[in-house]
Amino acid sequence: MRYTDVAIVGGGLAGSIAAAMLGRDGIAAILIDPHTVYPPELRCEKLGGEQLNLLRKTGLADATLRATTLDGEVWEARFGYVVARKPSDQHGVMYDTLVNTVRMQIPENVETIHAKTSEISSSAERQKLVLSNGEEISARLVVFANGLNVGLRQTLGIKRKVISACHSVTLGFNLEPVGRAAFDFPALTYWPKRASSRMAYLSIFPINGTMRANLMVYRDMTDPWLPAFKQAPERAMVAIMPGLENMMDAFRVSGPVKIRPADLCVTEGHIRPGMVLVGDAFSTSCPAAGTGTTKVFTDVERLCNVYIPQWLSTEGMGAEKIAAFYDDAEKKACEARCLAKAYHLRSLSTDNGLSWRAQRWARFILRLAQGTRLAIGRQFAGGSMPRRLAAKQAAHP
Prior knowledge:
- The longest helix is centred in the last third of the chain and has 28 residues, at 354-381.
- This protein has 397 residues and is α/β, with parallel strands linked by helices.
- Helix 1 (13-24) runs parallel beside helix 4, helix 2 (50-57) packs parallel to helix 9 (292-312) and helix 6 crosses helix 7 (233-240).
- The chain starts with a strand and ends with a helix.
- It has helices spanning 13-24, 50-57, 61-65, 95-103, 151-154, 225-231, 233-240, 244-248, 292-312, 319-326, 329-350, 354-381, 387-395, and strands spanning 2-9, 29-32, 46-47, 69-70, 73-78, 81-87, 91-92, 111-113, 117-121, 127-131, 136-144, 159-177, 188-190, 199-207, 210-217, 251-268, 275-277.
- Strands 1, 2, 8, 9, 10, 11 and 17 form a seven-stranded mixed beta sheet that branches. A seven-stranded mixed beta sheet has the order 6-5-13-14-15-12-16, with helices on both faces.
- The protein has two domains: 2-70 and 92-162 and 265-346, FAD/NAD(P)-binding domain (3-Layer(bba) Sandwich); 164-262 and 366-395, 2-Layer Sandwich (D-Amino Acid Oxidase, Chain A, domain 2).
- It contains 13 helices and 17 strands.
- Residues 4-302 form the FAD-binding domain.
- It comes from Bradyrhizobium erythrophlei.
- One of its GO terms (molecular function) is FAD binding.
- Pfam families: FAD_binding_3.
- This is 2-polyprenyl-6-methoxyphenol hydroxylase.
């Protein structure tokens, strides 16, 4: 039997950040995950905006961001027309690189055991874990950071409830120009023309010299459009986004097309003595809304910076202690924003009601106005769009 203060089940992004933060603060912790090196997986592929501020609160930002690629500027387009060129702080990174970079920051005082947790029993004092390699661990607190792996939690009566099945689908792939060295844009967000396309947007951004694409759509996994896309992705992209060729000229998809559906889920029966759920283990978010990492960073930062030090400073690990984390104002506000954004973006992208159509046009006009203002400022500063693309847009407005 090994004894520790905190046992972390799952070494993805949430679990690895928690292990690094607790180890840095001198808290006895053990990370349990079967992967010696985290494998490739289609999940978060860029960080930006408020996520950067949240990452800095974990104390892991500097080393983590060095493994990413900053785009610096993003072009926003619709109907094959660039409506805005904006400064951007988006940092592209493959998910496995992100997790493995965080893992490298876990201090030596945190032991990592490469196994699965097969059994767990809990009480208000200590929790017992039995691992697949036969080892046993006794911990004051168990942090569940094992994402969508619900089997172990179900044995404890913790239930997952799907509130929106296949809410969105992410398609991830690499793009490269044909007949030239690079695309004209440093990064591109392309918005759909019609709600009937059931598309949120196409995002193209750099990762280590490669242009990565994330296409966000709202379709059922039985939709024949998905296998058709995998078979002929270039043709499918041009069909769903009229005007895209005007932006990109000849291009090809290099490498495999990976597809990941995402359900929106919440957890019930989770307030238990001696155990806490973070990230996707507690609730999922919509990748199209871009809030998954925001939720993970918020959960782990609040848990490790605020609650675990408080909990360990007094005896016991009763359910009333655990409930304080779920009632945290910042966590609850983050959960509400992520859920609201997921539903709003889906309706904005697919609903053909008059109010939603008006909102889509209002967003387009706003972006066009912002882009025009930025373009005027850039002209005074001596910057301009590449001549070839400017000529094409003038010919095909």
